[in-house]
Design brief:
- The two termini are 14 Å apart.
- A hairpin with a 2-residue loop joins strand 1 and strand 2.
- This protein has a single domain, classed as Farnesyl Diphosphate Synthase (Orthogonal Bundle).
- The protein is mainly alpha-helical and 294 residues long.
- A two-stranded antiparallel sheet has the order 1-2.
- It has 15 helices and 2 strands.
């Protein structure tokens, strides 16, 4: 990563984390529930989705304050999905980001309720955002509900579960991850640029950019499940194969997956050029997502 990107990411993440935690800490709710919500929120993570919201906004305007509430809502929804993914009924994982998963520290019922709370509270945060107009709030809530719901992330999760222990095509795998991983990423890029006043044409090219970024993120995840360092990843490697998951390496081989990773990165760059956003941190984030080690 370039030094400029490191500085950019660290400054934005520090500011964002403080706001994100504050949203939950100020809630007057049962202490055990709050503790469970904060446990997963504070567990770390790359904050890629909030970074994409802010970077997309900054491709056209300065001062990211307008993006903070929506970025927090987006990260809460992402975190809720991880809590539920880790449950015994789903992926049955004991560790997430190097720490015990939520249901292992608390219990399954509390973990489910913490996830439910993060999901529903996310939309309250957007509805109460003092920097958005009523029109912007409705637009944001509609887009995020589609991206996180049965037409987006949940559709992808369902298709992923149904594909276990079955042979599927590359197109079918792309469809899974377009929804499971890509829907929230596409929302992040789209909404940041929308807040900044990007044109319809620019938004359409940014949607293409985020489509390829979503696939890029997932193919690198799959590669790291084979080649990654467990200490850096914070979870055991090889879990995809154990769980009979369809992955890019399982369909294409490791070298084939790397070739597709490079292709997705190239297409993301091309889309960014057409959106007149090449001179932004969205461009630097392509390399970061493609070559991250955790």
């Amino acid at each position: 990563m370039s030094e400029d990107l490191v500085i950019y990411m660290e400054s934005r993440i520090k500011m964002f984390n403080e706001e994100l935690i504050h949203f939950i800490q100020t809630l007057e709710i049962p202490p055990h529930l709050k503790e469970s919500m904060l446990y997963s929120i504070k567990a770390g993570g790359k904050r890629v989705r909030p970074l994409l919201v802010m970077a997309s906004y900054e491709a056209y305007r300065k001062d990211v304050k307008k993006t903070i509430h929506t970025s927090a809502a987006l990260e809460m929804i992402h975190t809720y999905s991880l809590i539920h993914d880790d449950l015994p009924a789903m992926d049955d994982d004991d560790y997430r980001r190097g720490k015990l998963t939520n249901h292992k520290v608390f219990d399954e019922a509390t973990a489910i309720l913490a996830g439910d709370s993060l999901l529903t509270y996310a939309f309250e945060i957007i509805a109460n955002d003092p920097l958005l107009t009523d029109k912007e709030k409705v637009y944001t809530i509609q887009k995020l509900s589609v991206a996180s719901g049965p037409q987006g992330m949940i559709a992808g999760q369902t298709l992923d579960i149904e594909a276990e222990e079955k042979e599927i095509t590359l197109d079918e795998l792309n469809q899974i991850h377009k929804n499971k991983t890509g829907a929230l990423i596409q929302f992040a890029v789209h909404i940041g640029a929308y807040f900044a006043g990007a044109s319809e044409e620019q938004l359409s090219y940014l949607d293409k950019y985020s489509y390829y970024i979503g696939l890029l993120f997932q193919v690198q995840d799959d590669i790291l499940d084979i080649t990654g360092d467990e200490e850096r990843l914070g979870k055991p490697v090889g879990s995809d194969e154990i769980n009979a998951k369809n992955t890019y390496p399982s369909l294409l081989g490791l070298e084939g997956a790397k070739k597709y990773r490079d292709y997705y990165a190239k297409e993301a760059k091309n889309a960014l050029d057409k959106a007149n956003a090449r001179q932004s941190f969205l461009y630097d984030l392509i390399k970061y997502v493609a070559h991250r080690d955790h």
